[in-house]
Each structure stands twice: as structure tokens, then as C-alpha cells.
């Protein structure tokens, strides 16, 4: 009988391996090498696949995501936050926002989580090459942009000017602030802003859109925007008002997903599926926000 | 249900659910039909689409009320003055059914006497409904040939619940809107087999088929059939059992089968003390409920899909439900458990199958006289009364005459709620169900999809009230009454009237029934769930 | 295995439905078209009625309280203990000191048996259920 | 050239008995309550095969059950090696070659749609594949459409041109036989292998078959202009009024998605069996549920009921037209009479086409 009712029943090993490889719903195991605390709600997890061969073959592109799973708690899609050039594994930056991610926060280095992927359409590297890149991020929205920043900073000859405007609620809540000085040294023009001022803060205060005012847009500029939905909407509006073409503004979306591979239907957005047609979209591809 | 029993002689729905479709006017009272009885709401929508008129009496602007032609948004607990005013209008405009009153009812003069003393303006003031709307509703209801009343626990769960029900019965009799197909008075029963549990005599005062224990004839009949002597003094009701309390200790031991009074009964603190005060508590259930956690012995029971048996729905339809799978582990059906205990206590019960039990029920219960399992095997049920094997069942009751002979008018006066809002407790709390959850959530909270849809207890409040208190949608609040306090998440809803709150009782994290009143109706012993005074404050925990 | 006709276990409408059984598990439900109430549809609760049946929280063994904790026991032990304790209360305090709550979630047959048991074996009319709640 | 044969009605049962030895049989059966359902037939002699009424379920649950375990998993709290810590073991369904007979055109077409969803993308769903592989379909054209059908408007019935292994057409009481068309190799194989039951069709049979097909087109009780509605939606029509009305009537039961033969959305949940093990379970889901799109933090990009209903109808009539070239509604009409509040696709389509007509006349949008 081919139906295996209980895990104790042993399946033919070869068939199990076969089924496992074809089976899009079952995760691989990844071991947590290191955990970096970004702020009170956000951690970055450095992961390696337990299977060495799989780990060796593993690669991803900026903008893609993984489905992570925890025992009894199901799955959630999480964007890559490390450089795609990384040798050993990848990083996921996870915010505590539900039962699954709360459980992830309890993990320690050496623990195992389930991962499957990479999934999704990445940032269009060919369209970004040689362009001036304007990154606009809010809060944990920096995470999916970080692989892109690392990627282009390490290829200075292929990239144009890199600028980033990054906003956060408070100075403590900036993610990846350990990277800021290295990025700036490598040529990133970085401007930070916070919503609420604090004592040791001497940077600007206000919404990230206010930083855009001084920036000049030309045809060679591509904008990469990620953050809370409302921020994305306002940045889009302002960039387009400043003369930027909708197809040059790129963002990455977050949706409730179950399969990650375009079957389950949860992430339908008009005729598109965020998991396979996205999560990276240009502003031109996004539907009218009033009719999601 | 006592109300209908006194006026009509039977406390069950007079019609079938399908008959609602053919009604010309449907009066829905105290029922959030779309949430609690979706199938009934479906018939109402269908009827309205076909041109029927819909009158809704409810303090909340529920979904069904939004579809009503007339929504009488009364203050909680003011059904009687409203109905008396409606009946007065009917009387004034001479829309009464003289012939019906003459032929089929009694005590009309007393009713008339009361109605003639009703002051319409005063009624409008008490109920908070404009006198014009009342008159319009009265005309609409009385002028139609086929008008049906549906009511639910919003009517009965008051200290004057029985009187409320009697008033609806009065209204139906005054206009002759009973005793026919498509018109009647339909109490909607809230649970799986609540009708059947009543029918089967799980009541302190009645043997199966509403045969009163107090009647020596009935006792004799059952004593002969069962071969024993039976107690004659009437027993205690739920609230009397669960509210025993330490000083007036009434019970030493309890056997609870598939109930969760630790979440469903009012004034939970008292329930806890009385259950903890018992020497011995047995609970048989499918999950470890809040009540089972207090038990001395917990028995694992089988759920509906794991046993065969009949259940009776709201429209008196007795249906056979089949066993589909085996119970998990060592769990056994409640029927087996009872037989085992009874045998061990010296009264052997050895039934081969539910079929055999049903045959005994048929023998002893006239209204179930012809409801044998084999008749139910190939049909979706028979509606009682079904007197013998050849009886086709009874879709609508009281044809030719009322079950009790004549329908009896029972004039009723306004009984104000026990605990009106005051300065300290300025809000009136109404409790009820949410769509995705059911009762104490024992089953629905274990269903992944239903839990995903709703897994927190919300407190509905009018946005203006929230604004005055400085509360925002979704914030954590604490609701306090004279009996205790409970945390909730605030939900702003225009369904509510100013000064009124609504919440559910599905969630053990927010045990709403800590707040509610134990005061119950003197006849039906239905607690006043729909009306208690509370205050709201921000939860700082 | 064919579909098993059953009745929805939630509200009093009493919708007729079919339970789909595969490998000893209820895997789904579908409403009956000919049923006078369900008429080919169920509400959201009815459509998910199968989801709790095989939940891991289901009680699978009798439990007896020992030293303030509920511990698994055999059926014989549990039933004997119940019979013994109820008989003791009955003899020591009288029948009317025992109360029984029946259930609107159990079948007619079970309700009938429970009231019969209460009236005969326990000798009291202290039986009620949640109709009023 | 597709071979055509006729099958005398008396021979249908003997043919099925022979085929039943080779295949698991699934067909429409009328049960003792008077409901007609597609069920697995284990004993041909004990069931009442019903080819007169529309089966109330579709074939969806045979390929994509309402709940289905995908895998079991083990969580070892004291692991011997890290790989044992959290591992999954697939629970594949059996692959049982199944003959589906008496299948209506709409239901077969829905299966073809599901094939595209589960097997047509970059990633294949092996659970679906396992159930789908080796399925043979003998369809039955509808001489008389049922109360709410409109498959002529969605262009996948009442008779099919492709997709079936064998298609039967009832030639009426006078001839008492079925006209048989073989559409695929399996169908040809059946006809060849059991040739003794079949007769080569005559010109006369062919004429009767055309007549049945022509008559059936005239017997539809519902007049629904699906193509016009699709055009209107393609042009950007947003039927606000009807959606507002629907949102006040929808009672959130999800029945429309569950009964729909082409609604394939599902949810995956991990359900604990005990502390150390559990199952990954897939179950049907519906886009009309608020929880369908709600994200972990509580934010819901589609939080208004109006938008959820819009999504459901637009998916069927607009987005799938854009993606796959045809609407994914197959016109079976099952969602029409089952809805609690009259939120049905026929009303939706009619509202759009009526408004469209109005617009064409008066140059005004919806």
C-alpha cells in the first residue's frame, strides 16, 4: 500500500527521498548559526541548510523569500536579508508579529527550523545595472532591500550612485545599524530619519517622505521602496509627483501565503499571485489601492 | 418555553422552518438570526425577496434588522410594553380576528381590559420607539393574512422572559395568526438537541413528552413501565444546582454530561464555589472543559459523529444521525456510560442499541409514539407529535384546536429590568453569540478555520460612547459589574445603540458570565443574560 | 467508504449533512440537497464540523482525581468509583442531594437514559439541561 | 477522426461491471434520501445509478479532498542528531486508477481547470497528481439542462468537444441507446476491448445526436451572458451597487467556494498530534473568509466583505480570462440555489450586463 498513515511505518527509502524532492509542501531543515538582535521585536537569523549537498547548491536572488516553519505552528513567508554572494547560507530577518514568529524569537543558536524555497520573482538585476539607485525603507522594510544594497555595493563598477533614505519610529528601532558605517564607506549615501525624537538623536525628525524633497530624479534613477503599506503609498505618490515613471519604482509586497508556489490562492492580487508574479512589483504593475 | 406552554399548550415551534418562506409578514424578535440561525435567516431573505414584509424587534441594529422594513430598536427588556402598545393599536383600528378569538381562545376580556388601559405615549417613552413606528408595525402585522413571529433568547433571557413570550402569543391570538400553515409563533432553539433534551424529560418537572412528574397518573404509568418507585417532589433547575453556594448547600454530588456551566452559567464565581463545594463531581465530555477541570472523575465521551442516535431540531424534527467513525482511544458513547453506572448501582440497563431505547421511548411518550428508527432510516426525520407508526408527523401545530384546548390570553404588565444602568454602572450589557463560534467554544475553538476567523472576545460599543470615554477600536478594556470584572478587546460598532454594549460568552479568557445576573424568571428559570449594568475602563494589565 | 448521513452538531436548525470518511477519519462534510432545512448549504460552522473531531485535545481515557491531579484510570475503576460515591451520597444525605445535568449535545436516547437513571437509580428529579442558557 | 459508436442502454451496467474489475468506479448515485451524489461504487447491484439529476457535489473532492494530510512530522525534544529534531514524512495518497462515469460536462471541465492549477505551473502538486493519474472519464452530455445551469454561456457544455475519454449522448426513448464518442486513447481502448457491447453508429444515430445537442441549447432556463460580462469587466467595469448589496446579504458561510468545482484555494496548517508529533494538513479555504488574507500582525489587505466578494467574482470572470483565456466559472449553477443571501454569480453577471446595456444606450458607467 502506498498510503503511509503513521510516521512509524517505514517507507521505501528511495521513494521517500524521491517524494521528498518533488514534494513542494515539505520543508528542509536549517540550523541557526547565529542570531543578531536588531531591536526589541526584530531578530536576524543566520541559517545554513543541514543537508550539506543542498546547502552547497543553494542560491537565491535579492527579493526572493523563504517559507519558514516551526513545529505545530505552520509556515510564514520571510524575505532574505543577507547578501546573495554569502558563502555559507543565508539570513532571514523576522519580526515578532504572530504565534509563529513569537516562537521563532524563543530559538537559540544551534536550533533547527524548517525552510523551503527560495520562491518568488527577484528584483530585476538587468534593469538596475548602471542605474542610480534610490532606496527608501521604513522599519523592517530594509530587510528585503539589504541583499540588493550588499550586491551593488560589492559591484561598484556596474552600479550608479546609491542613496538610501531610511526611516524608523525611534532611533532604537533601526535595523542593521551595524552595517551603516560600512555601507557609507563603500559609497552609499545614507540619510536616516525618525518619527519621534530622542535625546541622543541629532539626525532628522519626520517622515521618510520629507527626505525625498532634496533629491533630484533623472531618467537614470530607479527607486526601491519597502516599508509599511501606508509609507509605500505615500512614497509612490511623491516620487511620481517628482516626475518618476511608475515602472521605475519598485517595491516588494507582503501577503498571507500558504504554498508559496502559486497554487493555494491566498496571495491573489487582481490577476497576479504575489508569490510567483511577485513579491517584487513595479508601481505600474500594482492595482488601484482602493480595490485590492 | 413555559410561556407558550401556558398559552398554547405546547412550547415548541408551531411551524417548520420552510414555512417562513411563504409568510407575508415576518416579525423577528430578540434574534440575531443571520448569526445564530443562518438557515432561518435564509428563509427570511427569500421571503423578503418574494415581497414579504419584515419587522425586527431588537435593541441592536443587527444584519437582519438592516434588511427590515420596520426596525423597532427597543431598549433592552421592554418587549411587553411594546407588544401591549402594538396590540392596543390593533384593537383601536379593529384589526383583531373576532372569529378566531371567539372560537379558539379564552380570557379575552381580561386581555382587553389591560389593553384599554395602555397609554401609547407612555409606551413609546419606555421602549424608546416612536409611536408612529409602533402603529405602522401593528398594522403591517395584523393586516397580513399570514404573519409569523420568530423569537429567540433575546426574548426569553430576561427575568420577565415567560411574560414576554406570553405577550407574543397574545399578539398572535389577537390577530388569529396561529393554527395555520405559514403563520404561528416560532421559538428558535439554539442548540443541536435542546428540543430533544426537553422532549426526553431532562427537566426537573417532567417525564418524557412533557408528562408532569407532579401528576400521580403519570408517575404510576412510568413506575409500572420501569418497575420501580419514582420521586414525586420536583427537582432543581440548572441555576439552582450550579448556584448552590456553601451556606445553603443543596447538593453533595453532581453528574454532568456534556455541559460546561463554568462558562455558560451566570455569576461564574458562584458556580465555581458551588462546584468546588461538592463532595463528588463527575463530568463526561469530549474535551477537558473548564468544568471537567474541577471534576473528581472525568469520562471521555464520543462526539456526534461517533455514535448513532436521534436528535430533535428546533422545528420538532426527529432525525437519525449515524455513526461515521470510532471514538478516539477508549472514549465511549454517553449512552454506554449511563448504562454501566446504572447497572453498577443496582438497576441493570442492557440495551442492545439506540434502536431499542427508542422503542421504549415510543411506548411511553405519546408525542414520539410512532418515531421508530426504521422509519427515520430513509428520511430526514419526522416532526412530532407523531402518535403511531402510521402517523405522518405534524409540520405545524395547533390545527383545529390548541394543544391545551383553548388558547389562553395571559395579559402581562411591564417588568423593568432587575439592574438598570446607573451612574456607577452606566452601560447595559447584552450577551449573545458570534457567527464563527458556538456556545462555550469547546468544539468551535478546536476548529482551525473557525478559530482563524474569530479567536478573541470582542466588546461591541457605539463609536460615540467610545469617543466620550477616549477609547479606540481594538484597545484592551476591562468591563466591571457588581459581580466582577472581565477583560475584552473593544470593537466599535454602529450596530449598538448609545449606552448599550454587546459581548459573547465563547472564550474562557473573557468569561463574560462573571458579569451577568443570576436573577431568573420565576417560571422558566431563565437567567437575565440580556441585560445587566456595567462600567467600562481601560485595562492596564 | 460511502458518505455517512449525519446531523450538524451546532445550532437548533438541524441541518442534514454527509460526513466523508477516509481511513477511519472524517475528512469533510457536504450538505444534503433534499434535506428540508439544509437545502444544499451549511453555515460556516457546519462546513467545518469535521475539524474538531480528531483534535489532539480529545479525551481518550477516563481520569480520576488523585492528590489534586487528574490521572488516567481504567474504565472499571472510574465507573466503580462513581457508582460507589453516588450510592454513598444517596444513602448518607438522601437522593435529593445529587444533581444531574443532561446535555443538548447528546442524543434523545442518551437524554432519555440519563433521566431514567436519575429518577430510578438516583431517586431524584434533580435533572436539567441548558435549555434556559 | 474520432470513432463513434452506440451503446444500448441495457448494456451500460454490464459494461460498467467489466470496467469495475479494472478500475475503481465513481458515478452519480441516488441515495435513500433522494440526494444524487458522485460516490465510489463498490457494489453495482446495490446502488441506484442516477443519470437524470444533477449530482449535488462535483468531482473536486475526489482529487482535492476537503481535508488531506500532506505529511506527518516529528519534533524530538532530546535529539540524537540534529536531523532528527524536526523532520517531515510525506503521506501520499494511493494512486488508484479510477473510472468516473456519468460525469457532466461542467464537472469534467472543472477537472481540466484543476489540472492547470495543480499541475500546470512550475511546481507540480504531487498529491493531486497521485489522485489524478490514471483517471478515466466517461461523460454524459445533458439533453436537458438543470434549473440553474448555464454552461452554454460559459462554453463548456452541455456537450463537450474534447477532454473526455468517452462521451455519451442519450439518443432519446425511441432509440434507447447512447451515442458514444471516444476522445482519448483510453476511450478508444475501452471501445475496442469491450466491442461486444458497442455497435458502430449510423448516420441516423448521428442525426439524433445533433438533434439532441440542438434541442438542449434551447432548454436552458437561465439566460446568462457570461461573455458580455467578461467584456465589461475587461473594460474596467466596477459594479459597485451590486457588490454593496451582496456584502449586506452574504452570510460568510463559504459554501459557494466549497461547492464550486473550480474553487481550488486551500490552507495548510500544522496540527499537533501530541507534543512531539503532528500532521501538516491541507484543507479547503474560501476567499470570502476574512481570515483568508489576514496576515500575522492582524493587518488584512482585503478587509471589507465587499472586496472579498468582488475578488471571488472577478477571479472567475476577469482575472482567469486574462490569465487563461476563459472564465473559470463552468456554469454548473451549484452556487446559485445554495446561497443563504442570494449572492450568486448569475445575479452578478446579469447586474453587469444590464448595466452594460444601459451604458451602451446612454453612455454611462455602472
List keywords for this structure.
heterotetramer; A: alpha/beta; Elongation Factor Tu (Ef-tu), domain 3; Rossmann fold; seven-stranded mixed β-sheet; six-stranded antiparallel β-sheet; 29% strand; disordered N terminus; B: 541 residues; alpha/beta; Dimethylsulfoxide Reductase, domain 2; Barwin-like endoglucanases; 3 domains; five-stranded parallel β-sheet; globular
Protein model, in words:
The complex is a heterotetramer of chains A (292), B (541), C (133) and D (366). By secondary structure, chain A is α/β, with parallel strands linked by helices. Chain A has 9 helices and 15 strands. Chain A has 2 domains: 13-118, Translation factors (Elongation Factor Tu (Ef-tu), domain 3, Beta Barrel); 125-285, Nucleotide-binding domain of ferredoxin-NADP reductase (FNR) module (Rossmann fold, 3-Layer(aba) Sandwich), CATH 3.40.50.80. In chain A, strand 1 and strand 2 form a beta hairpin. With 541 residues, chain B is an alpha/beta fold. Chain B has 3 domains: 2-188, Dimethylsulfoxide Reductase, domain 2; 194-383, 3-Layer(aba) Sandwich (Rossmann fold), CATH 3.40.50; 427-538, Beta Barrel (Barwin-like endoglucanases). Chain B contains 21 helices and 21 strands. Chain D is globular. In chain D, strand 9 and strand 10 (177-182) form a beta hairpin. Helix content of chain D is 36%, strand content 21%. Chains B and C meet through helix 3, helix 12, helix 14, strand 9 and strand 10 of B and strand 1, strand 2, strand 4, helix 2 and strand 6 of C. Strand 9 of chain B pairs parallel with strand 6 of chain C, so a sheet runs across the interface.
What is the structure about, briefly put?
Chain B is an alpha/beta fold. Chain B starts with a helix and ends with a strand. The longest helix of chain C is centred in the middle third of the chain and has 19 residues, at 75-93.
Topology:
The complex is a heterotetramer of chains A (292), B (541), C (133) and D (366).
Chain A: H1 13-22, E1 28-37, E2 42-49, H2 52-57, E3 65-70, E4 74-79, E5 90-95, H3 99-105, E6 112-119, H4 125-128, E7 132-138, H5 142-153, E8 162-168, H6 180-185, E9 188-194, E10 204-205, H7 208-212, E11 221-226, H8 229-241, E12 249-252, E13 268-269, E14 272-273, H9 274-277, E15 280-282
Parallel strand pairs in A: 7-8, 7-11, 8-9, 9-10, 11-12
Antiparallel strand pairs in A: 1-2, 1-6, 2-5, 3-4, 3-6, 12-15, 13-14
Chain B: H1 2-7, E1 25-29, H2 33-36, H3 38-49, E2 53-57, H4 63-66, E3 70-72, H5 79-92, H6 98-104, E4 105-106, H7 108-116, H8 120-127, H9 131-143, E5 147-151, H10 153-156, H11 161-174, E6 184-187, H12 194-199, E7 206-207, E8 211-212, H13 216-226, H14 238-242, E9 253-257, H15 261-264, H16 268-276, E10 280-285, E11 297-300, E12 309-312, E13 317-321, H17 334-344, H18 354-364, H19 373-376, E14 382-383, E15 407-408, E16 427-432, H20 448-453, E17 458-461, H21 463-469, E18 476-481, E19 484-492, E20 500-504, E21 532-538
Parallel strand pairs in B: 1-2, 1-5, 2-3, 4-15, 5-6, 9-10, 10-11, 16-20, 17-19
Antiparallel strand pairs in B: 7-8, 12-13, 13-14, 16-21, 17-20, 18-19, 18-21
Chain D: E1 4-8, H1 12-22, E2 24-30, E3 36-41, E4 48-49, H2 60-63, E5 67-75, E6 86-90, E7 98-103, H3 105-119, H4 126-132, E8 135-140, H5 151-154, E9 166-170, E10 177-182, H6 185-193, E11 198-200, H7 203-218, H8 226-234, H9 240-249, H10 255-259, E12 266-274, E13 277-284, H11 305-324, H12 334-338, H13 345-362
Parallel strand pairs in D: 2-7, 7-8, 8-9
Antiparallel strand pairs in D: 1-10, 1-11, 2-3, 2-4, 5-6, 5-13, 9-10, 12-13
Helix pairs in contact in D: 8-11, 8-13, 9-11
Amino acid at each position: 500500500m502506498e498510503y503511509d498513515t503513521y510516521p512509524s511505518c517505514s517507507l521505501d527509502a528511495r521513494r521517500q527521498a524521491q517524494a521528498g524532492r518533488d514534494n513542494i509542501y515539505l520543508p528542509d531543515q536549517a540550523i541557526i548559526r547565529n542570531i543578531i538582535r536588531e531591536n526589541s521585536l526584530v531578530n536576524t537569523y543566520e541559517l545554513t541548510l543541514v543537508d550539506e549537498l543542498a546547502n552547497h547548491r543553494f542560491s537565491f536572488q535579492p527579493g526572493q523569500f523563504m517559507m519558514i516553519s516551526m513545529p505545530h505552528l505552520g509556515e510564514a513567508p520571510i524575505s532574505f536579508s543577507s547578501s546573495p554572494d554569502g558563502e555559507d547560507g543565508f539570513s532571514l530577518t523576522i519580526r515578532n508579529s504572530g504565534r509563529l514568529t513569537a516562537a521563532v524569537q524563543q530559538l537559540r543558536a544551534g536550533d533547527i527550523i524548517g525552510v523551503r524555497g527560495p520562491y518568488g520573482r527577484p528584483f530585476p538585476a538587468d534593469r538596475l545595472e548602471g542605474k542610480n539607485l534610490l532606496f527608501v525603507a521604513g522599519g523592517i522594510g530594509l530587510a528585503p532591500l539589504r541583499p540588493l544594497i550588499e550586491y551593488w555595493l560589492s559591484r561598484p563598477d556596474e552600479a550608479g550612485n546609491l542613496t538610501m533614505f531610511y526611516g524608523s519610529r525611534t532611533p532604537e528601532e533601526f535595523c542593521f545599524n551595524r552595517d551603516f558605517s560600512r555601507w557609507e564607506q563603500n559609497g552609499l549615501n545614507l540619510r536616516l530619519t525618525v518619527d519621534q525624537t530622542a535625546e541622543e538623536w541629532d539626525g532628522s525628525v519626520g517622515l521618510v517622505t520629507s527626505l525625498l524633497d532634496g533629491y533630484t530624479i533623472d531618467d537614470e534613477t530607479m527607486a526601491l521602496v519597502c516599508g509599511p503599506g501606508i509609507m509605500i503609498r505615500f512614497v509612490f505618490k511623491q516620487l511620481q509627483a517628482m516626475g518618476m515613471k511608475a515602472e521605475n519604482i519598485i517595491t516588494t509586497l507582503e501577503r498571507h501565503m500558504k504554498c508559496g508556489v502559486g497554487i493555494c490562492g491566498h496571495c491573489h492580487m487582481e490577476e497576479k499571485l504575489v508569490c510567483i508574479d511577485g513579491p517584487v512589483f513595479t508601481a505600474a504593475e500594482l492595482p488601484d489601492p482602493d480595490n485590492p | 418555553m413555559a410561556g407558550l406552554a401556558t398559552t398554547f399548550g405546547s412550547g415548541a415551534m408551531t411551524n417548520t422552518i420552510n414555512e417562513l418562506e411563504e409568510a407575508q409578514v415576518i416579525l423577528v424578535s430578540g434574534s440575531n438570526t443571520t448569526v445564530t440561525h443562518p438557515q432561518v435567516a435564509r428563509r427570511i431573505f427569500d421571503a423578503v425577496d418574494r415581497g414579504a414584509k419584515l419587522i425586527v424587534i431588537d435593541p441592536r441594529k443587527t444584519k437582519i434588522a438592516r434588511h427590515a422594513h420596520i426596525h423597532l430598536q427597543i431598549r433592552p427588556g421592554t418587549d411587553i410594553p411594546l407588544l401591549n402598545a402594538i396590540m392596543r393599536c390593533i384593537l383601536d383600528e379593529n384589526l383583531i380576528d373576532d372569529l378566531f378569538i371567539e372560537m379558539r381562545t379564552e380570557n379575552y376580556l381580561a386581555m382587553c381590559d389591560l389593553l384599554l388601559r395602555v397609554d401609547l405615549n407612555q409606551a413609546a417613552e419606555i421602549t424608546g420607539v416612536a409611536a408612529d413606528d409602533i402603529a405602522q408595525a401593528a398594522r403591517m402585522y395584523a393586516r397580513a393574512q399570514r404573519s409569523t413571529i420568530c423569537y429567540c433568547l433575546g426574548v426569553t433571557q430576561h427575568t420577565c422572559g415567560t411574560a414576554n413570550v406570553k405577550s407574543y402569543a397574545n399578539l398572535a391570538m389577537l390577530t388569529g395568526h396561529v393554527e395555520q400553515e405559514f403563520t404561528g409563533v416560532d421559538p428558535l432553539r439554539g442548540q443541536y438537541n435542546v428540543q430533544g433534551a426537553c422532549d426526553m424529560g431532562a427537566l426537573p418537572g417532567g417525564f418524557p413528552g412533557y408528562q408532569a412528574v407532579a401528576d400521580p397518573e403519570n408517575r404510576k404509568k412510568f413506575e409500572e413501565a420501569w418497575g420501580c418507585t419514582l420521586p414525586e417532589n420536583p427537582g432543581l433547575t440548572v441555576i439552582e444546582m450550579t448556584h448552590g453556594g456553601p451556606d445553603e448547600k443543596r447538593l453533595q454530588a453532581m453528574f454532568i454530561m456534556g455541559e460546561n456551566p463554568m462558562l455558560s452559567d451566570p455569576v461564574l464565581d458562584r458556580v465555581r464555589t458551588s462546584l468546588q463545594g461538592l463532595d463528588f463531581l463527575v463530568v463526561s465530555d469530549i474535551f477537558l472543559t473548564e468544568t471537567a477541570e474541577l471534576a473528581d472523575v472525568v469520562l471521555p465521551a464520543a462526539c456526534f459523529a461517533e455514535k448513532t442516535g436521534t436528535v430533535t431540531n428546533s422545528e420538532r424534527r426527529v432525525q437519525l444521525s449515524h455513526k461515521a467513525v470510532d471514538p478516539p482511544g477508549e472514549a465511549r458513547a454517553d449512552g454506554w456510560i449511563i448504562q454501566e453506572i446504572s447497572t453498577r448501582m443496582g438497576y441493570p440497563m442492557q440495551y442492545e442499541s439506540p434502536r431499542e431505547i427508542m422503542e421504549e421511548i415510543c411506548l411511553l411518550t405519546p408525542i414520539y409514539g410512532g418515531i421508530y428508527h426504521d422509519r427515520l432510516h430513509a428520511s430526514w426525520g419526522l416532526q412530532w407529535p407523531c402518535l403511531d407508526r402510521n402517523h405522518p408527523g405534524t409540520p405545524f401545530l395547533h390545527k383545529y384546536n390548541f394543544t391545551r384546548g383553548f388558547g389562553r390570553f395571559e395579559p402581562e404588565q411591564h417588568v423593568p429590568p432587575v439592574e438598570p444602568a446607573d451612574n456607577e454602572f452606566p452601560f447595559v450589557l447584552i450577551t449573545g453569540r458570534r457567527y464563527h463560534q458556538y456556545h462555550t467554544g469547546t468544539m468551535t475553538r478546536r476548529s482551525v478555520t473557525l478559530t482563524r476567523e474569530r479567536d478573541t472576545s470582542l466588546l461591541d460599543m457605539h463609536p460615540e460612547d467610545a469617543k466620550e470615554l477616549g477609547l479606540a477600536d481594538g484597545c484592551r478594556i476591562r468591563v466591571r459589574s457588581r459581580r466582577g470584572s472581565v477583560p475584552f478587546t473593544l470593537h466599535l460598532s454602529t450596530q449598538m445603540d448609545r449606552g448599550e454594549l454587546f459581548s459573547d460568552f465563547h472564550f474562557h479568557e473573557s468569561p463574560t458570565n462573571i458579569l451577568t445576573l443570576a436573577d431568573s424568571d420565576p417560571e422558566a428559570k431563565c437567567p437575565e443574560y440580556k441585560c445587566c449594568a456595567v462600567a467600562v475602563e481601560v485595562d492596564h494589565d | 467508504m460511502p458518505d455517512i448521513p449525519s446531523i450538524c452538531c451546532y445550532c437548533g436548525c438541524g441541518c442534514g449533512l454527509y460526513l466523508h470518511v477516509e481511513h477511519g477519519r472524517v475528512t469533510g462534510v457536504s450538505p444534503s440537497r433534499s434535506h428540508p432545512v439544509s437545502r444544499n448549504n451549511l453555515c460556516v460552522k457546519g462546513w467545518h464540523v469535521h475539524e474538531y473531531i480528531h483534535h489532539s485535545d480529545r479525551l481518550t481515557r477516563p481520569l480520576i482525581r488523585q492528590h489534586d491531579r487528574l490521572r488516567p484510570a481504567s474504565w472499571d475503576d472510574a465507573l466503580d468509583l462513581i457508582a460507589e460515591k453516588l450510592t454513598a451520597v444517596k444513602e448518607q444525605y438522601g437522593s435529593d442531594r445529587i444533581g444531574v445535568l443532561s446535555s443538548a449535545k447528546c442524543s434523545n436516547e442518551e437524554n432519555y437514559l440519563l433521566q431514567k437513571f436519575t429518577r430510578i437509580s438516583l431517586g431524584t428529579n434533580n435533572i436539567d439541561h441548558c435549555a434556559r442558557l | 477522426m474520432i470513432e463513434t459508436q452506440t451503446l444500448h442502454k441495457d448494456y451500460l451496467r454490464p459494461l460498467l461491471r467489466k470496467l469495475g474489475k479494472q478500475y475503481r468506479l465513481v458515478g452519480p448515485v441516488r441515495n435513500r434520501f433522494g440526494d444524487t451524489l458522485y460516490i465510489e461504487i463498490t457494489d453495482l447491484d446495490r446502488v441506484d445509478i442516477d443519470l437524470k439529476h444533477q449530482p449535488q457535489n462535483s468531482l473536486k473532492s475526489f482529487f482535492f479532498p476537503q481535508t488531506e494530510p500532506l505529511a506527518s512530522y516529528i519534533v524530538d525534544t532530546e535529539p540524537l542528531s540534529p536531523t532528527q529534531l524536526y523532520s517531515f514524512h510525506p503521506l501520499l495518497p494511493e494512486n488508484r486508477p479510477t473510472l468516473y462515469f456519468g460525469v457532466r460536462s461542467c464537472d469534467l471541465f472543472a477537472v481540466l481547470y484543476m489540472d492547470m492549477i495543480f499541475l500546470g505551473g512550475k511546481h507540480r502538486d504531487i498529491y493531486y497528481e497521485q489522485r489524478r493519474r490514471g483517471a478515466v472519464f466517461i461523460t454524459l452530455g445533458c439533453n436537458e439542462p438543470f434549473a440553474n445551469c448555464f454552461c452554454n454561456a460559459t462554453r463548456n457544455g452541455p456537450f463537450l468537444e474534447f477532454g473526455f475519454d468517452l462521451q455519451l449522448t442519450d439518443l432519446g426513448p425511441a432509440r434507447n441507446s447512447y451515442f458514444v464518442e471516444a476522445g482519448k486513447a483510453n476511450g478508444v481502448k475501452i471501445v475496442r476491448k469491450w466491442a461486444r457491447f458497442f455497435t458502430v453508429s449510423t448516420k441516423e444515430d448521428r442525426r439524433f445526436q445533433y438533434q439532441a445537442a440542438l434541442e438542449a441549447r434551447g432548454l436552458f432556463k437561465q439566460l446568462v451572458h457570461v461573455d458580455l460580462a467578461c467584456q465589461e469587466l475587461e473594460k474596467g467595469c466596477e459594479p459597485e451597487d451590486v457588490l454593496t448589496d451582496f456584502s449586506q446579504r452574504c452570510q460568510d458561510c463559504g459554501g459557494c467556494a466549497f461547492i464550486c468545482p473550480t474553487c481550488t484555494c486551500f490552507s495548510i496548517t500544522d496540527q499537533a498530534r501530541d507534543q512531539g508529533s503532528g500532521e501538516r494538513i491541507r484543507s479547503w479555504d474560501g476567499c470570502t473568509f476574512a481570515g483568508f488574507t489576514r496576515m500575522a500582525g492582524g493587518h488584512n489587505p482585503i478587509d471589507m466583505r465587499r472586496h472579498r466578494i468582488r475578488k471571488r467574482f472577478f477571479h472567475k470572470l476577469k482575472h482567469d480570462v486574462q490569465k487563461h483565456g476563459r472564465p473559470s466559472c463552468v456554469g454548473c449553477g451549484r452556487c446559485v440555489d445554495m446561497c443563504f443571501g442570494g449572492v450568486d454569480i448569475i445575479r452578478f453577471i446579469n447586474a453587469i450586463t444590464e448595466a452594460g446595456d444601459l451604458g451602451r444606450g446612454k453612455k454611462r458607467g455602472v
